[in-house]
Design brief:
Elements (H helix, E strand, L loop, with lengths): L22 E7 L3 E7 L6 E7 L1 E4 L8 E9 L4 E13 L3 H11 L5 E6 L4 E4 L5 E9 L9 E10 L4 E3 L5 E2 L2 E3 L7
Length: 183
């Protein structure tokens, strides 16, 4: 039995305590077509992605969205994949939000990018796409309870989410900011 350790290139040092949780911005594309990609030297950074499609901005309130990525390793099967779960919360039950989330739920091959609170951009679902897997619409019970939507976009890709330097590294795509819609 051969042990493969030649891919390990370094250890992991202890960084200063200067990281913050949460997500600032979220952009979702359900009409994605890729024509090319360029990766950084470590293959963890997506330097350029060419294609077409429209990314829509989904405004999220502060401290309501999170990204969790779990490595699933099955030594007996010889498989490895990374499952990512993006929790999105949208306040206020409204017809417009309901309709957009309903359309999103019907798509099977979504790509998305987000900016975390450490000013790092991430690109998710590059290989196998993402799909909504759960959604809760709730009125709340008491006056101080949340009234709105909690939905999860899930990826299952052979690689973890990619770092991108900015959305400018994604060329050929349309970026459509969110607009105020009254229902």
């Amino acid at each position: 039995m051969a042990i493969i350790n030649s891919l390990l290139t370094n250890g992991i040092n202890l960084d200063p305590i200067d990281s913050v949780g949460g997500i600032q911005q979220l952009w979702i594309c359900a009409s994605f077509s890729q024509t090319g990609a360029t990766f950084g030297a470590t293959a963890s950074r997506l330097d350029a992605l060419q294609g077409s499609g429209t990314f829509f901005q989904f405004d999220i309130a502060k401290d309501t969205a999170s990204w969790t990525e779990t490595a699933t390793i099955a030594p007996a099967a010889g498989t490895l994949f990374f499952q990512g779960d993006l929790l999105m919360v949208f306040h206020k039950l409204e017809q417009y939000r309901r309709n957009q989330l309903n359309l999103l739920a019907r798509n099977r091959f979504i790509r998305f990018t987000f900016l975390d609170n450490n000013n790092r951009w991430w690109f998710c679902g590059l290989t196998r796409g993402a799909q909504l897997t759960t959604g809760v619409n709730q009125t709340g019970l008491n006056p101080g309870d949340m009234n709105g939507y909690s939905y999860t976009l899930q990826t299952q890709d052979p690689n973890p989410a990619f770092f991108i330097t900015s959305t400018a590294s994604l060329t050929g795509f349309t970026w459509t900011p969110a607009t105020i819609v009254t229902s």
